[in-house]
Write the C-alpha cells for this entry.
Amino acid sequence: MFYRLQPVLVFVIVAIVGMLTATASWYTIDQANRLAFVGIAEDAVQRVGDRIENHMLLIKSVEAHFQATGQVPSVEAFRVFVSHLQKTEQFNGVQGLGFARYVQAGSQSDLAISSELERNYSLPRSPWPETNETYRTPIVMLEPATDINRRALGFDMYAEPTRRAAILAALSEQRLRASGTVELVQENSHDPQAGFLMYTPFFGANTGLPLGFIYAPFRIPNLFDSALNRPPMLPVHITAWDGEPSDAGLIYKSEANPSRRIDAAPPSVMSVEVAGRTWTVEIRASEDYRPPVDQTRTIMLAVASLLLAAALAASSRAQQRTIEVGEALRLQSERALTDREFLLQEMKHRIKNMIARVLAMSRQTARSTDSLNDFTNSFSARLQAMAASQDLLARTAWQSADLKMLLAQELRQLFGDNLDKSNIKGPGIELNEVAAQAFGLAFHELATNALKYGSAQSEDGKLDIWWRIERKAGDPETLVFSWRERSTTPLGEQNSNALAQKGGFGTKLLDATMRVELGGSINIVPDEYGIDVTIRVPFERVKANHQQS
C-alpha cells in the first residue's frame, strides 16, 4: 500500500513544505505592508483632524476678536476681519463665519432682527421659519457675503432640532461644540451636501448674558477633500460616519473604489474628535495603492514548490512504473507457461476425444451400412462435418455466432446428413465471442460423450435439445439450455456416469467454461438409459453486443 502511495506522499510532503515556506514569506511581507498602510491611514486621519483643528481655531479667533471689543462688532469690522482670515490656508473648506443672535421669541425681537438685517445687508427679511420655541438664534452676520450665504441670513437655527442640541450644549458647557449632520440652508435642492456646524457662545462683557453664537457652517465633502487632496496624495478610500457606523450616520465616502488586490492591506478603523462629537473613519486602500513590498516572489516561490513537488512525484512514479513493468513481464511469463501447459492438456484431451470419436463413428457407421461403398460415403461425410466444426471453433476472431448453427456443426458428427432437426428447438440467439467459444467446447464435450458412452451408440437412441430465455420479475434474464439423451436399452454403469465423473478433464472443462467464464451453472444428472444436462447462464453475459434482449 505504501509503495503505491509513494508518489502521492512525495508530492504532498514537498508541496506542504513549499507552501509553508511561501506562507511564512507571505505573512512576513503582509505584516510589513500592513504596518506601512497603518502609517498611511494614520496620516489620513491626522490630516482630517488637523483640518478640523484649524477650523476650530478660526472660530476661536473670531471669538477673540469679539472679546477684544467686549461687544458684537459692526458688520463692516466683521467683514474686514473675515477677509483677512480668508487669505489663510485654514479657511479652505469653510463655508463662512457668522454670528447668530440669541433672543427670546416674539414680535419685538423679530422686528429688531429684521432691522439688523436691513442695516447690515440691506436685506428686507424677517427671521424664519415660524417657531414655537421660547428662544431664537437667527443669523444676522455671515461672511463672506456670497449669494449662497445671503440665502441663510435670518434663518433661526434654534428652530431645527439638530442645530438646537448643539447650541444648547455650547451654551451649557460654555465652549465650542459641533452639531450632528444637517443639510445647510445654503445648499440648493439639486445637489445637497451633508454638512455640520460648530458653535461657541458669546457673552456680554458687562451683563454676562449670552448675546449670541459665533458659528461656522461646513460642507463635510469639502472638509475631507481639502484635508486629503494635497501632496503627497494618499492612496486611500475613506468612509466616515457620525458616531457608530450605520447607514443613517454615513457622512462621507470617497468617490474612487477601494482596491481589490489580494495583497491589499485590511481596512483600518479610527476615530476623530470634532468639538464634542466622535466621527468613525474607515480607511481602505484605494485602486491606486501599491504595497511597498510586492508579493510576486511569494507567488513564484509557491509555484516553484508545486513544480518541484510534481517533478519529484513524477520521478518516483517513473521508478515505480519501471518496477511494475518488470513485475508484469514476470507474471506474464508465468501466465504464458501456465496457459501453455493448459493448452497442451486440452490438446491431449481433444486428440484422445477425436480418436475416440473417429472409432465410435466408424463402429456406428459400420453397423448401419451394408457395403464398403456405403460405409466410405457415410463415414467421409461425418469426418467432413467434424472437420467443419473444428474449423468453426478455431475462428477466435469471431464477433458473434449463431447458437443453433454452432450446435448443428457438432451434431452432424453424430447423425451426418440424416440429422433430424425436429428435436432441436429454441429461439435464434447470437452469441458473443466468449460465449461462442464456451458453448462450442460444451457441445464438443457433450457430443463426444454421446459418441463414446451415450445414446449415439444405439441405433434407436434419441436426443432432445431445447433452449429458451427465462424472464422473471425482478431478476435478470437467463439462458437455459437442455441436453437430454435416451436409449431403449440400458447403458452400462460406467458409461452412464462417464460425463458426471468429477475428476475427468471433460467435466472440469465444462465447469470452467460455464461457471467461471460465463458466471452460470451446469447440472449433470446420469440415468440408466441416458443423461440429462441443464446449463443456466445469465443472458447478458452471452448475447452479442448488437443483439437486443
Observations:
- The first helix runs from residue 2 to 69.
- The CA atoms of residues 130 and 431 lie 106 Å apart.
- The first strand starts at residue 97 and ends at 101.
- The chain has a mean pLDDT of 85.
